[in-house]
Amino acid sequence: MYIFTGTELEEAGPEAQVYHEVRSAITALHHLLKGEGYHAAEPHLLEAGARMNQGHHLQEGTACQGQGQGHHPEAHLLRKGLCLMEIVLLILTKNTISECVSQLQSDCGYEVKQKALETLISITKASPQNRNLVLQNNEAIPTILNLLKSSPTLEKLSLSTIFNLSLNPNLKSTLAEMATIQHLNTTILSRGSLESARLAASLICSLAMLDKNKAVFGVANTIQVLLMAVSRSKGHATCTSPTKLTCRADLSGTALVILGLLARFDEGIQALINTPCIVSKMVHVLKERCMMSEGATEILIRVIDESEECLIEAMGLPDLMFVLAEVSVRGSTRAREKASILLKKLEANESYEEGNLAFLKW
């Protein structure tokens, strides 16, 4: 059977487009029906989708060049074939999800469960519709959450699956249960896999995008956990593994982003303000890691705006002005902007304090 190249397809016209699109779709369905899973079918599905998009553009252009007679029959056939393929894929996807959940619930071997989770990751990676299909399976999410307490590899795969699901706004509330958040806190602070810790922090970041979830993180002591994650990574200067250093930097950076998000609601800002030496901790981040200056300056602005005690602590740090001045010159664009805002706030307060002092002396 002859396989058209991309250039030949454009030259051959709509008939060849339809042929190649249908062939790609049938190949994908063939892999799925044989039970070879999404890993075997995915390249053909992607190719079918790309060809269909290309085909629609070409066929619409061809029809427009006609004499007002409407679309070509091939375009109509393609649309009908696409609808049929979507229906079949929907059924196959639901069956695949059910099969994966059954395997995860069974007493089957480690490798079977690993493959089931990898399949769920592939299914939910780029498709909001598929994520909702997982939600429709009442046993799927509880089963995946239970695997967070299993082996390190299965925990990491489970976190990846849950993170994919959390990308759908309608799933964020469902996933933000207290037990899940507390387990994520434990994972972040554990001495185990740095990759799992980073995934747990990323998942918290995704869930925190929903305002309704922010109060739950405050109750679950997540803010203190994130502050510990930021401070802990400072003590690894002797680490020589580039991968580990990158994971620790990613974890600290993600933790600061989440703290910035949580600081936007009352419980979050109060938890930060009540943290002993919060200003000193953020200033230390500014000194040690220029790449994280944006998140640290954001938190400093918020706590100083909301707390007179934090402002007093900031004014009592002799090197704070110098550190902020350095960030305002060497930091990223947003970090420079935030550092400049913070410098102006502190300078204005310093002028006010000096004015009061002069008045008292008079």
Description:
This protein has about 350 residues and is an all-alpha fold. Among the domains are: about 110-120 and about 135-235 and about 245-270, Alpha Horseshoe (Leucine-rich Repeat Variant), CATH 1.25.10.10; about 275-360. The protein has helices spanning about 5-10, 15-35, 35-65, 75-105, 110-125, 130-135, 140-145, 150-165, 170-175, 180-190, 195-205, 210-220, 220-230, 240-260, 265-275, 280-290, 295-305, 310-315, 320-330, 335-360. Helix 4 (about 75-105) runs antiparallel to helix 5 (about 110-125), helix 11 (about 195-205) packs parallel to helix 14 and helix 14 (about 240-260) runs parallel beside helix 17 (about 295-305). The longest helix is centred in the first third of the chain and has 33 residues, at about 75-105. Residues about 1-15, about 55-70, about 235-240 and about 355-360 have low confidence and may be disordered. Keywords: Ubl conjugation pathway. InterPro entries: ARM-like, ARM-type_fold. This is U-box domain-containing protein.
